[in-house]
User: Fold this.
Amino acid sequence: MPTVAPLDLDGHCVAAAFVDDIPFFALADGMVHWLDHGQESLKLHDGLLSATTSAKNDRLISGGEDGKVMGLTSAGVAEELAGIGRKWVTSVAAGPQGALAYASGRNAWVRLPDGKVKEFVHPRSVEGVAFSPKGMRIGVARYNGATLHFPAADGKPTELQWDGAHTGITFSPDGNFLVTTMQENALHGWKLADGKHMRMTGYPAKVKSMSWSAKGRWLASSGAPAAIVWPFQSKDGPMGKAPLELGTRGNLMVTAVACHPTDEIAAIGYADGMVLAARFADQKEVLLRRPGKGAITSLAWDREGRRIAFGTEPGDCGVVDITA
Assistant:
């Protein structure tokens, strides 16, 4: 049976992550806590809105209501990486060679590896940013679609249109597909080679969590009473194919998903705080954590795929060791 090391914090956990294999928990009040031979804490923002890890997993990147983009190392060293005045930084993304993307209102910025900052203004608010795994390219989720920018070049952006509010964004690991979460309880995707649309509908709730399997063959998602896992093995992605449904638990909603770093396994978090692991091949499940005080908001595997950090809405966070 896996063991759970609990960490009771006070408040909503925006992101659980591993930085240099040390578990970090970023809370909405701007506090960040981590477990390195005991609990360490630091006030990083006046209100934290989004967080991720750098491409090398050597620091936590966060954006807040104070208009700052911060980097925090595993040693607890904080550095302001960017600032946009009195606007809220609503999303952040980490790219190759230390590049950063961040957004506020209708604007997205990219800080290139050489320190230069490029600003991109959109007609409507930017809801999410992501880096492509290939080349210096970012995707922006916006109202009525997505926009692709090449920040190092001065050419026109690529506009991908689809009516509705797009709230989050991710590229497939091979860079062939772009997928957004939508306000309308759906995912929408584009095949980037030819702009073909991929509609992934039927969710009873909004999709707030997406995670690609190690080789990009599958995309796991929340927003249903099971983890909905779409197949991306063929050149047209999931079109005409049914998704896997992993970890079905009556009408209890899946609220977070995270795919294992090497194996086709997903950690699945639920509205009651339970965490399961499920294998794609045979849908076998293992209970990792019993229900807690509230919904799982974030899940992250360590590099070895042996531990999972989890964050929750009320703050009863922790780390599961699946090898114990």
Summary: The mean pLDDT is 96. DSSP finds no helices and 30 strands in the chain. Residues 1-27+204-323 form a domain with the Methylamine Dehydrogenase; Chain H fold (CATH 2.130.10.10). The longest strand covers residues 158-171.
